[in-house]
Amino acid sequence: MSRHISEQYDSELESLNRLLMEMGGLVERQLRSAARAFVTHDTGLAAEVFTLETDVNRLELALDDECVHIIARRQPAARDLRLLISIMKAGTDLERVGDEACKIARMTEQVATFPIPDNGYLGIQHMRDIVIRMLTTTLDAFARLDLDAAYEVIATDAEVDDGFAAVDRALLREIAEQSDFLQRSVNTVWTARALERIGDHAKNISEYIVYVIRGRDVRHPGAARS
Amino acid sequence: MSRHISEQYDSELESLNRLLMEMGGLVERQLRSAARAFVTHDTGLAAEVFTLETDVNRLELALDDECVHIIARRQPAARDLRLLISIMKAGTDLERVGDEACKIARMTEQVATFPIPDNGYLGIQHMRDIVIRMLTTTLDAFARLDLDAAYEVIATDAEVDDGFAAVDRALLREIAEQSDFLQRSVNTVWTARALERIGDHAKNISEYIVYVIRGRDVRHPGAARS
Questions:
Q1: A203 and B124: CB-CB below 8 Å?
Q2: Beta strands in chain A (DSSP E)
Q3: Which has more pLDDT, B111 or B15?
Q4: Which CATH number does the domain housing residue B30 bear?
Q5: Considering the entire predicted model, what is its pTM?
Q6: What is the nearest CA distance from A37 to chain B, expressed in angstroms?
Q7: Of all residues in chain B, what percent are helix, strand and coil, respectively (each to 5)?
Q8: Which of A158, A211, B195, B206 is within CB 3.0–4.6 Å of A150 for a Cys-Cys bond?
């Protein structure tokens, strides 16, 4: 009997893992399409990124629901509990990666009226290659609970930060040739963006409150609930 | 006996709530100082934002640890389980708010060599007022599980988005007066930033993997563990 329960539990975890991988696959597609659309100024491809968003949101909700049900029903301890909580948190991060891909798709629409720069957005291509590799590696590492691969991804994040710093420096050089005050303006927008994201976080927290009280998720009102 | 356990459980939840509020208070201080530092070009005040980061990180880890222990020990069902999971997720969001405040503090150091613009960063001040109100309201709503207040915060997020759009439009106007291609450059940096954050998310997911396997948290290596 105990073995039967354990087998059932294993199959529940396996199904959760499949959900997470399905979600990861969709988000990876969003990211690849968005990055490719940006560097080639392909607005048609950018539009495809938005169409995937509904499915990603639906999967995140399904993942959260399943995790909560399993915790309540199985009352797992220690490692199993940490796994379930981590799957939920990973789902949240994947969904936010999808959000960023949508932002890149919107940027594409804005830059598409300009010529592609001579270097073909080399800095963006470099960053894209690194983060796609990070994403696929971490998803694979999650499925196999591969600690070495996880540490590898964590270490790689510094390369992405360097890549961003290089793109940022190039912009400031370009701006410096034209105006003394554009640096101030750019930093103003960056700050506005940071504030805008803080608003998102506050909104998230409020949505958790609704979730606690109502037992349902208001994060993606458009997503179909099972 | 059962009542005794329930009282003990209540006091555990209360102590969790206090931890979350303490963390929220620190993050709010970071946000207020960072926003004030930016609009007044006060680099001394900006430096204070960084000094609070260690405490915020420590509190996030403590919050996560406590939640996992309570779930494992008490095996709560339904609403209590949702509450504990939501406290953990809220802790994650608060910590990221603190990260954004640090970014604003770094922006301050970069703009401080320029004169303060004639409008005194009116758009930033407007956004700051809204997000501080969102943050204090949502924390208060969390403590009281106040559904109406939570929905109010969720609705207010649209105002922050509008505030950002206004700042963004003002920058593009300023740039348009100087160059045909700076729009492209600015969008390139935005895209780079989005990719950089995607790297952060992938890193987060890998850290969850380490957490599952090792049972400890690698997110803030500098933070003291209890």
A1: no
A2: none
A3: B15
A4: 1.20.58.220
A5: 0.81
A6: 12
A7: 85, 0, 15
A8: B206
